[in-house]
Amino acid sequence: MSRVRRGATGIRRGAVLAGLAALAGVLGASASTSPVQVLQRIAVGGTGQVRALAAGPQAKHVYAAVGEEIRSFDDLGKAASTVKLRGVVTGLAAGAGDTLYAVVRAPARLVILGVRPLHVVTSVALPAGAPSGVFFDSIANQLFVASRSGHSVTRLEPKTGRRLGVARMPGMLAQMAANGRGTLYVVNGARDSLDVVSADKMTLSGQIPLPGCRAPSGLAMDPLGRRLFVGCGNGHALIVDADLGFTFVKLPIQQSDALQMAFAFHPFGPSGWKGGVFIAGGEALHTIRMYAFVHYANGGKLALPGTVSALALNPAAGELWVAIASAAGAGGELLALGQSGMGGAR
Asked: What is the DSSP letter of 3?
């Protein structure tokens, strides 16, 4: 198994990026105040924690996996509808149109839901192991389910859930990301690397090493600039050129063994940031601001009122949703975060 190859053009580009790395590191050395504030708080009752979040179509709803239930909340924070599944939901992903994907731990299943109204469309078994996460590549229209216990990632047909292929990957698998052109990236916390998967054949084509990164778990991608953003458990965020497998920026973040990340262009609307990365873990939210494809800086840190259990970005609404786990072991709350200066809680 080899690391990502570098062509002649890539080597020259790598030299340029290496020259910019020091500059980007200096620019990111001083964090500003957080660009986000809490706009809304929603108490979540029930017997389970919020394990996953997904933003709905047209910025109208957010969906939360709470124990064996999927609950929807409207843009006013009111509970809209609830669907109960057979088993604990461990992951959610918004699909194309009005589709939502959920994965259930036991019995291991993929559940495809419609959201108008919220209802189950179909449910299929997942024989590759208990699912730990689900990811939908909206550019390539590809659906993937990861299983830590099964040491595998399965690609499924988005409309029917039919299995299209399985890639076996030993290690501690965490967040996934894709470039929209047939390549899937999977965080492997046991190897301190990213596994690179050819999505068409579901074969492991290489690894991207993450120098100085220990116990990575968070991952997001800018598919246009071909940048990978990696959250490391030892207190760093790496920005990696996906073509070269080259880390050219390292920024300080909180230490956490369960980081979650999201990236979006203009996450607060057209008048806001050009691009932003959001990193949640422990009891804090870190932001990275994108100025250009080779210029990133710390965007600030926001203390949160508890431990983060889930994260979902809804750029269409200019909102970031964060689930805060309850210290009592059940319930918790959802926070809707928006750009500072947009007003107080709604």
From this structure: B
